[in-house]
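USER: Study each token:
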Amino acid sequence: MLKRFLISVTCALFLLPITQASAQQPQGETQYISDDLFTFLHSGPGRNYRILGSVIAGAEVQVLRTDSDSNYVEIVDDKDRTGWVDGEFVSPQKSLRELVPGLQQQLADATQNTSAQQTENETLRQQFSELQTQNSKLTKQLKTLEEQNADFSQKLDSADQTAKMQWFTRGGIVALISLILGVIVAYLPKKRRKSDTWM
């Protein structure tokens, strides 16, 4: 009877910290084994418990509870094994092993995007250079056309003045001829009319 009582008390004392620890931590929280090293998976919250295996650094685990006395954390590892590991090696941050492939992919994508942007920039530079050349040619053509237009305008003004002078000269000649004819006609002797007489 005494033996059973002592066994019951020992079991109660052993299970009391585990029950308290389970009430302190939320269950099902995702965390990670830190990158420092691999850690052993124990059957209980301490190194004196049987080793069930090891958990690779960086592995994703589900935290079930934490034993505040030993700072051991009960987890479910990536192989669906339930056991305890030292809480020092459990981190809420993703491990480098998890982050590096994603970062490498991001770096590869960024490098590819940079290369594509550099190619696009080079194409835009070439197009800009071609547009500048075309603009220079068009500017020269415009200047030539403006000079031709000014020359034509000058020639047109000169032709207009020449035409006006010609009309003025012709008008003056016609007026002079008319005046001369008028004077000549005025001084021509007039013929006398024969008087009608009856024989």
User: Anything to note?
Assistant: DSSP finds two helices and seven strands in the chain.
